[in-house]
Amino acid sequence: MNTKQFHIGDILSVTTGVLVSPRHIGGVYDILQWMTGDVLWTHQLPRACEECAPALGEQFPELAAVEVPEGLNSEDEVLDWLAGLAQQHGETRQVAPLPKEDHTSIDPITELRMMRPDMQIVPVIADDAGDAA
To answer: Residue ranges per domain, the chain?
Structure first.
């Protein structure tokens, strides 16, 4: 099976809904895009988390019980907490992508229209960078 290595903070950010990835939101984008096979936009992240969290719980049941403590008020506190978890559980895991049937791929603009049918959406199409000279 094809897998990719991710930090436990990336995994826990998805399973707990609390951003504890040492790579911040970039870690969340990376793991969700890996698992779904889609290039996700910001408004698609909550749905992708809902799809991916159960699979991560199945892949890593020992992490499923981990709860992020209240009172982590700085990046240093989060990193210290993660370092303690890494001693218990290891720092990284090999994550498998979702089975195709467990993810619904939706065009980002279409999904935004589904979420906010009352909002005017104006897509911007940029010229190729080579044409800007």
So the answer is: 4-132
